[in-house]
Amino acid sequence: MIRTRFAPSPTGYLHVGGLRTALYSYLLAKKHDGQFVLRIEDTDQKREVEGATAHLMEMLDWAGITPDESPHKGGPYEPYIQSQRTEIYQKHAEELLEKKHAYRCFCTAERLTEMREHQEKSKKAPMYDRHCLYLSDEEIQKNLDERKSFVVRQKIPLEKLVKFKDLVRGNVTFAAKTLDDHVLLKSDGFPTYQLANVIDDHLMEITHVIRGEEWLPSAPKHILLYESFEWDPPEFAHIALLLNKDRTKLSKRQGDVSVEDYIKKGYSKEAIINFIAFLGWHPGGDSEEILNLEELVELFSIEKVHKAGAIFDIEKLDWFNWQWSRRKFHDGLHKFAKKLDQNVQIESPKKGEFKFKFNDPENAKEFFEHRTTELKTMCFNSLADAYKEDDDFLRKVLLTVEEKILKDHKNINEYVSFYFEDKEYDAELLTHEKMKVDFATAKTALEKIKEKFNDFDSFEDEEKIKEILLTTVEELGFKNGQVFWPLRAALTGEQFSPGVFEVAWVLGKDQSLERIQNALDKLENAA
Ligand code: GLU
Asked: Ligand 1 in contact with 197 (CB < 6 A)?
């Protein structure tokens, strides 16, 4: 049975890197029908922030990576808060003392400062000088009788080479002589991270420890502790740091690092989780990238986690967010279409280019209603003004900017305003050097379209608009762009816009003709 854990210290917000550690731990456990445990490591009480534990639990619930065992839920290995387990650590520290894998250190703070200053001056690594390792039993007893305060230090077996196989980094070796006889139990009886972490991972039967690379230097100390207790160590996977675009360590100074910040910015939960999962992991091959939690569980494997640091790229998060709003939108449409018509044909459902073909035109109409109502709801506030317009018109408008809505519905006004007002623009917009559209070409094209549109009454049918415009191209012996560019510019007054057939379809005959005439007047004045 695989058991993983997320073991944060309650020092404030949930860091995006923390969420990734929790997520990978959850994915690994769930992939193998195992259990995921939340343990709060609050042994450094000075750093604790009030409410942080509750916040962490809330965030995991929000993400849907709910622990099977936690301070909230309890479980067979409770308590899951380290400050409630001090007796357990003290008992185990006692065991290490007895086995001579640890020793009491009575050094005063002054002595330690002096020692460190001395080491600094002589350019030696700052390490405890083992002064108390050599105290005789009598001296120790005397100190205890005098109630001198002490800490318990790990006695590092200096001659050893500590080796282990990290699931991400491969074989790792540390020379024990580079390790400090660090403190395991503080003078107030509280354990340090090193001691409590090892004891709990063992007692809670954790099989796989996934954590940030910053803990790699602690791993050999942990392995030595496992040996001292004669316990089997768990498997370790140290995952690489998250980096800013300039490859420096992801920091608050360069942007937001708390998950909450991104929720507040409006990124969807699915997008955040999907993005975080891909920070340093990829399912490989040409696998889909837009994955929900269950799909991530299915595809996850720790062997595919990258060794190199992952860049926290907001543009990628934006992309995931867009893809996710698309997926949710299309999933909703898909369901609705199925409900309407069992025989509906759905083309290329994976690429986000859904095409629904209904046998019954009534179904198609109802589907169109539904689709546009959904779009309208998405950008209701930003369209509040335009909303007063004719409803059918607005529905059509929205359909032409569907992708934009899914990407960024807040600024949708910018993209649709040309439908509602005649934009100011220069005659030059009607020309295009690369497409070989000069004033004369634009004029010829627009005049011809005007003529065609005057005799054309099927503006309800986008396909027919397309047909008539393609015929125009042919009759003029022009290239597509030489007709479509000036027409698009005339109809929208914008550099970028939805496609020309769609725009003509939305504007209808009168509006289209009016705008074409405006453009022709502009060309007249420019000549
Ligand atoms: N309490 C440590 C932290 O805050 C846990 C490190 C580990 O997973 O071993 O990240």
From this structure: yes
Query: Strands 102-105 and 151-154, how do they pair?
Result: antiparallel
503/453 Cα distance (integer angstroms): 14
- For residue 278, what is the DSSP state? T
Hunting for tokens 């990238």 — which residue is that?
A: 289
Please pick, among 99, 245, 252, 357, the residue that the annotation labels catalytic. Answer: 252
Cis bond upstream, residue 79 (ω within 30): yes
Contact 156, 218 (CB under 8 A): no
Which secondary-structure segment (H or E) carries 4?
strand 3-6
Q: How far is the CA of 290 from the centre of ligand 1 (A)?
A: 29
Q: Is 77 exposed, middle or buried (0-12, 13-18, 19+ CB in 10 A)?
A: middle
Find the 504 Cα to ligand 1 centroid distance in Å.
Answer: 60
The pLDDT tens digits of the residues spanning 427-482 come to 999 999 999 999 999 999 999 999 999 999 999 999 999 999 999 999 999 999 99
In this prediction the pTM is 0.89
pLDDT in tens, 155-190: 999 999 999 999 999 999 999 999 999 999 999 999
Helix (H) or strand (E) holding 445: helix 439-454
Q: Which of ligand 1's atoms lies nearest the C-alpha of 8?
A: 4
Q: What is the pLDDT of residues 380-414, one digit of tens each?
A: 877 776 667 678 898 899 999 999 999 988 888 88
Question: Cβ(215) to ligand 1 under 6 A?
Answer: yes
Closest CA to 275 of 238, 306, 321: 321
278 in Cβ contact with 319 (< 8 Å): no
| Bridge partners, 4 (sequence order) | 36, 208
> Per-residue confidence at 39, pLDDT binned at 50, 70, 90?
very high
SS3 state of residue 462? helix
Phi/psi for 20 (5° steps) reads -65, -45
The answer to whether residue 264 is catalytic is: no
Give the Cα separation of 526 and 476 in Å (integer). Answer: 23
Rounded (5°) CA angle 19-351-327:
45
